[in-house]
Amino acid sequence: xxxxxxxxxxxxxxxxxxxxxxxxxxxxxxxxxxxxxxxxxxxxxxxxxxxxxxxxxxxxxxxxxxxxxxxxxxxxxxxxxxxxxxxxxxxxxxxxxxxxxxxxxxxxxxxxxxxxxxxxxxxxxxxxxxxxxxxxxxxxxxxxxxxxxxxxxxxxxxxxxxxxxxxxxxxxxxxxxxxxxxxxxxxxxxxxxxxxxxxxxxxxxxxxxxxxxxxxxxxxxxxxxxxxxxxxxxxxxxxxxxxxxxxxxxxxxxxxxxxxxxxxxxxxxxxxxxxxxxxxxxxxxxxxxxxxxxxxxxxxxxxxxxxxxxxxxxxxxxxxxxxxxxxxxxxxxxxxxxxxxxxxxxxxxxxxxxxxxxxxxxxxxxxxxxxxxxxxxxxxxxxxxxxxxxxxxxxxxxxxxxxxxxxxxxxxxxxxxxxxxxxxxxxxxxxxxxxxxxxxxxxxxxxxxxxxxxxxxxxxxxxxxxxxxxxxxxxxxxxxxxxxxxxxxxxxxxxxxxxxxxxxxxxxxxxxxxxxxxxxxxxxxxxxxxxxxxxxxxxxxxxxxxxxxxxxxxxxxxxxxxxxxxxxxxxxxxxxxxxxxxxxxxxxxxxxxxxxxxxxxxxxxxxxxxxxxxxxxxxxxxxxxxxxxxxxxxxxxxxxxxxxxxxxxxxxxxxxxxxxxxxxxxxxxxxxxxxxxxxxxxxxxxxxxxxxx
Length: 693
What we know:
By secondary structure, the chain is mainly alpha-helical. It is built from 25 helices and 9 strands. A hairpin with a 2-residue loop joins strand 6 and strand 7.
C-alpha cells in the first residue's frame, strides 16, 4: 500500500472554497478487486500507491490537493497524442482528453473501451493523450510495460504498442511484453537496447512526477481540455462532456473559477463594490428601498416580518455559521487543535488579535462611540488566504496553516461576541425553548438518527426561539453543527465489494439479455436496476458522514451566495458621510487603526509571549518577517465585521462610518501584509532531524 500524499493545507482552508470545486484528492489507494469480483465499470479509482522510485534518490513528488487545471499543458513535441491532427477534418474543434494510466490497471482497461467508442463517434474531433502512472507495487510489471511502450515509441510505434499491451489480458509478464512488441513489427534488437536506456525510465518518471504535482493518486485520472474530469465514466456522460453543451460549459467555467485561490474573496469584493456603487449613485433610493423591503409571515410586527437586510444578517448567515461550527468541530477532533502545543499558538494569537484591536479602538473612543469596539476584531480568512495563495510558493506552508487555524478561533470569538455583547430586546423566557430544542438535538445525535429532516426541523425551531429571545438567530447554525452526527470512516473493502457486486450483476444481466435477443437491452425497468442503484447509492453515501454531506452541500452556497448577498446588503453605505463631528472621526480612526495596527500588534505580541514561555513553537519554515506579514494580513476583515457594526450602532450614522473604516483598514492591511510577505526571504523546508543513536 502506498504512502498517502502529504497535505499542504488542512481541510479547513476550503471553507470559502467549496469542496466540490477544489477537487481534493483522496488518500485512499485501492487494491485490485478481490478474487471472484468482476471489476465492471466501477467508478472507484484504482490506486496508484507508490509509483516507481524517483531517479533522484527515491523521493516521490506528492501533493494532497488535486489540481483542477493541468499544470503541464499538452506538448505535441513530447506527449503521445492520437487524433486531432492539424490537417484532419474537424481538428480545429478537437477536444483533448488526457489520461494518466497504468497498462495493468483493470479500470484503465475498462475505460479504454469507452475511449475507443468516443473516438469512433468523434473521429479527429477528439485528441487522446496518454501519460504514464504505473503502480508497480499493486501491478508487478506495470513499470516495465510503460518503459516498453516508450521503447516502441522510438520506432514510431507507441500507439501500436499501447493497443497491443491493453489487448492482452493480465498477468502481463516480461515475455508477454516482448511478444506484443514482435506482433507489431518492432526491430527487436533495437528494442532490447532501448529497454536498457535509463532515459526511458526517466521519461516515465517525468509523467509520474507531473501526475503527483496534479494531485493524481489513482488511475485512470482524466483531464478534458486541461481540466480534471470527475464525472461518470460511461459513454454518454463523457460524450456530453466532450461535446460541451451550454450546461457543461457553464459548469466547467464555474469549476475553473471556483478553483482559483481567491475566488470566494473576489465574489465578496464584487458584491461589496456593487453595494457601494448603488449606495453612492442615483440608484441609492432604489437600493435603500430594496434593503428595507419587509418580507415575512403574519402582520408587520410578528417575529417573522423582517426586512431584506435582517433576513440576510440573521437568516442567510445561519448557513455561514453552520460551516464555521463544522470547521471548529473538525479541528477539535482531527485537525490543528488536537495537539495542545500545536493548537496553543493560533489560539493565543487569535485572542490577542481580538483584544488588541478592541483596546486600540477603546483608547480613542469613549461614551456613545465605545460600542463599536468589535468592528475591527474579525479576520476575513477568505481574503487573507487568498492573498497568501496569490503569492505562491514564497509563502511557507506552516504559515498558511497557522493563519487558517487562527481564523477558526477568530470565528469562535466572533460568534461569542455576537451572542454575549449584542442581544437586542432580550426576552429570557425564550431561552427555555432554546434549551429544550438543544436537548432534542442532543437526543437525535445520541439516538444516531442520520436522516436530515429532523435536524432541519429542529434548527428552524431553534432559529425562531433565538430570534424571539433577542439573540442573533444565525447562531443556530453553530448549534446545529455541534449535533450533526459523525460516523467512523468505513473500511474500503466492503464498500468496494458492494459496488462491484451491483455493477457486475447489471453487466451480467445485460449480457444475458443481449445474448437472448441480439439487441441492446433496456434494464431500467427491471428489478435488478433498482436493486443495483440502491446498493451503489448506499455505498457512496457511506463514504461521508451526515456532517460531511451537509458541509459539501452548503459550502458553495455559503461562498458564492450567502456571504456575497450579506455583503451586498451590509456594505452599501454612503461615502459622503459627515466627519465634521469629533465622534465620527474617532469611530473611523479607531476602526482603521484597530485593523492596521491593533491586529498585527496583538497577533505578534501573543506569539512572542507563547514562544518565550515555551507554551508553543513557531512554524519551522516561517521566518519573523513572513510571520509579521501574515499578522498584518489578519487585519483584512470580513462581512461579520459589518454585522458587528450594525449591532453596535443600530441607530444613527456611526454604523456607516464604522463600515467605511472596515473597508479602508482592510485594504491597507492587505497591501501592507502582501508587501511584507513578498519581501520576506523565500520559504525553506527544514531539514529532517538526525535520528538519535
